[in-house]
């Protein structure tokens, strides 16, 4: 296990560097001058001398590869630099907004996991009946609706029409309901059907027939054996989506004015705040790879056969 973790950790550095390099190239292809964006955000009309001085101060006059190498060396030392606009540490800006995003992500994952397990189990147990068809219809609707449309629909129904929940912002637990539902529905639509198919596939396996011949109760077979193995793809899927949700709640945070990382990242792109953009990509890549490793470890814990295969390799 330790060797597996070490080998996976070694892949972290080149993958993160590749992700940040792609982001660095895309930022440099943009026609917007970061120095002009800096003065524009400060509501200052600069002249050419001011622009040149600011470019030199920000290191934008250096050759392309020199800029990237300097940036990559700082990132490997966990130094993400200073924001052009706020003149604050990028790490400080990220940590300031991370709790709000974690709160939104955690509630969304909890709602989605409970709904996926419940709906997928009911759909599999009652396959071919009205419960199964209802879950399928819900999955199709959830997969078809874009998140921004679903968010505005929930705002109209629960905030404007029925006046039950607040529209936007962050404060009480009520502010968390609508954005969490918006984020979780896409996961429910995808993984409820996957969990259903996984259960039905496990029920066809020989060990289920053997368990019946041993006289085990059907409910015990389903919960202790079938569900335990059928849930493995769900664990993998949720683990792969955890990093994406933490760093990719951009649309939902914009719709509900949620003060998290996604909204902060969009504002940084508009303002061409290069250190923030680069630091965000670095943080997102590290987070995604770490959650992927954690998912694999949970997978091995749930299915000991994977651990034995790893030891044999």
TrEMBL record:
It is a multi-pass membrane protein. It is found in: Cell membrane. InterPro entries: BPD_transp_1_N, MetI-like, MetI-like_sf. The chain crosses the membrane at residues 12-30, 104-125, 137-160, 172-194, 226-246, 277-298. Residues 98-299 form the ABC transmembrane type-1 domain. Keywords: Cell membrane, Membrane, Transmembrane, Transmembrane helix, Transport. Pfam families: BPD_transp_1, BPD_transp_1_N. Belongs to the binding-protein-dependent transport system permease family. This is Nickel transport system permease protein.
């Amino acid at each position: 296990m330790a060797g597996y973790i070490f080998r996976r950790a070694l892949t972290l550095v080149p993958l993160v560097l590749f992700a940040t390099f792609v982001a660095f190239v895309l930022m440099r292809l943009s026609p917007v001058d970061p120095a002009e964006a800096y003065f524009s955000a400060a509501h200052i009309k600069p002249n050419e001398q001011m622009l040149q001085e600011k470019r030199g101060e920000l290191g934008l006059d250096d050759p392309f590869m020199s800029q990237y190498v300097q940036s990559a060396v700082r990132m490997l030392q966990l130094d993400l630099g200073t924001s052009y606009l706020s003149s604050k540490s990028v790490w400080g800006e990220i940590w300031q907004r991370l709790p709000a995003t974690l709160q939104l992500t955690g509630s969304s994952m909890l709602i989605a996991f409970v709904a996926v397990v419940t709906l997928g189990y009911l759909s599999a147990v009652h396959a071919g009946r009205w419960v199964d068809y209802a879950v399928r219809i819900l999955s199709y609707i959830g997969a078809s609706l874009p998140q921004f449309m679903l968010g505005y629909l929930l705002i109209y129904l629960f905030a404007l029409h029925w006046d039950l929940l607040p529209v936007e912002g962050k404060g009480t637990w009520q502010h968390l309901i609508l954005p969490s539902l918006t984020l979780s529905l896409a996961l429910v639509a995808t993984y409820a059907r996957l969990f259903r198919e996984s259960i039905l596939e496990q029920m066809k396996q020989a060990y289920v027939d053997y368990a019946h011949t041993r006289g085990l109760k059907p409910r015990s077979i389903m919960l202790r054996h079938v569900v335990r193995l059928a849930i493995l793809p769900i664990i993998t899927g949720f683990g792969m989506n955890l990093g994406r949700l933490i760093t990719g709640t951009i649309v939902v945070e914009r719709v509900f004015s949620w003060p998290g990382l996604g909204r902060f990242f969009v504002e940084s792109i508009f303002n061409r705040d290069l250190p923030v953009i680069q630091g965000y990509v670095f943080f997102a890549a590290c987070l995604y790879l770490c959650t992927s490793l954690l998912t694999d470890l949970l997978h091995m814990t749930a299915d000991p056969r994977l651990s034995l295969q790893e030891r044999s390799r």
